Amino acid sequence: MNVAHTEDCISYDADFDDTTSYELFAKPRMVADLESLCGFKKGEVEEMLSGEDNKLSMQMSAAQMYGRRAFLFRPPDDALGSLLKLYKRNSEAPRSSGHPQTLRLDEEELSRRISSFSLEMNPGVQSPLFTKHPVTGEVTIHEYPYPHLPTFEMRSAHPVLVSLKSYRQLLFWNIEDLSSDMLYKVGRVVYRWVPPNVPQSPSLRRPLGSSRPRRAPPSSYIPPPPVLSGKRKREAANDHSMLAPSKRARLGTPVSRRHVPSEYDAPVTRSKTMTQSSPTRDEPSSALFNSSPVAGRTRYGRAAKDKAVEAMESVIRKSRV
């Protein structure tokens, strides 16, 4: 007789004394979707996620392999087909509390039919698996391709959450085509359907092809200077309104960078030459002669080179004599 096992009757070694609690979902984004599709009231799924409905009781070795997506729990296909019809009917019904067109999952026979699971193994995993009989305690080892696995019932986890977790496990398996898989169809409806009473984000409400609204510039915003052609640049030279805005005025008294001679300056010798500043546009040309010399860059003679040349010439003269 095939007796249904519980999830803690699975292990990857012969030890069945190390049981742990495995949380199915932390807080999935499809809470509102699941409430609408299952006909639940607002807050019921949140309560499920915070209680025992969201937990599996598993052996430590099995919990580690389950987290690595080595296996999943699959409901019967006929039960998944009925669950898919329920989801579609509730998605088309107006979402309001107690609406006659909305069917609750726990009021249907479906909740009992999806409570029986078969154990499906990842095609890429071929490790030996152990199961323990819930009545006799007999331990059975199962080798690849696992032809005689028993059926399973969850101790406390809600079958809808277990089915959704199995859908998430299935997506990571190396299977090319899942379009005909009933578990994939049911999970895809939950994760892609948007309930009518949940407002979408502004980015989703924008019509296709519309641009994102621009923000108003701050009050201190300074626009960049206009890009002008050669002709426009010449015209802008006489029109100050077209030029870029001037920089922010510096605080305090401006300091002239022109050097003013003082009593601490080094005396000027004959070997040093001084440069004079050129007149500005507002100064007449006579300023070149009337302006007083201003200390500028000092130029030094090339004394070392001159001495070397003189020494070479003296040697040449001596050789000729």
Automatic annotation (TrEMBL):
Biased composition (Polar residues): 270-279
Organism of origin: Cylindrobasidium torrendii FP15055 ss-10
Low complexity bias (residue ranges): 200-211
Region entry Disordered, spans: 200-306
Protein name: Uncharacterized protein
